[in-house]
Amino acid sequence: MSKIIKATIISLMVAFISTIAILLIIHLFFGAKIDEAVSVVNKVSIDLENKNIEETVIESGNKLKNYPEYGTKYATIEIPKIDVNLPVYFGDTLDVLKKGVGHSSGSYFPGEGGSIIYMGHNSKNTFRRFSELQIGDSIKVTTNYGEYNYKIYDMQLIKETELDKLPVQKDKEILMVYTCYPFNNIGYATQRYVVYAELQK
Predict the structure, then answer these.
(1) Could you give the 3-state DSSP secondary structure of residue 108?
(2) Closest by alpha carbon to 103, among 83, 73, 79, 58?
(3) What is the pLDDT of residue 36?
(4) Residue 146's domain is classified under what CATH number?
(5) Is residue 63 domain-shared with residue 16, that is, in the same domain?
(6) How far apart, in whole angstroms, are the C-alpha atoms of residue 167 and residue 48?
(7) Residue 129: domain span
(8) Other C-beta atoms within 10 Å of 57: how many?
(9) Are residues 102 and 173 in the same domain?
(10) 121-156 tens-digit pLDDT
(11) Which of 19, 22, 28, 126 is the most buried (most CB within 10 A)?
């Protein structure tokens, strides 16, 4: 029995020393590149709220001029039914979502006539009360280039892998806002609760 214990301890020590050696080798050969990559990611996530984007306007053909920089606050979203009034940032990193609502960089902007995808945490200060929303409720997005009003027409519970439930298209202006589900979940969740709203003209 003592031989088994001794062999197990030796195996654990060898594994521990091997892991440390591998980490040291990675740090020696790739440390600078890893630090450089991390600094680039952090630079992208910097709060750019004070950047001047006052010249953002809708041009002919529903295209923005001077798109907001990644990480920049460019709008507010209001959902009166659940007392939501939050800043919207262009981007969807964890740093962005800590500050407010994120705007998926792969989707359109309000006023461009296509799919807009917003996301936010299911915390009590963000989208915890999504379950209270109903078809017909309103969502208002106010940007520095205009105000856009949307009406909810559908709500769906989807899996995080069902990207086809968040389609990006350019033929109709649809605002899709989602959060993690269940709403009182703490930690990682594999489901999303999506609210679909159509632009009101």
Answers:
(1) coil
(2) 73
(3) 44
(4) 2.40.260.10
(5) no
(6) 28
(7) 57-199
(8) 13
(9) yes
(10) 888 788 989 999 999 999 999 998 999 999 999 999
(11) 126
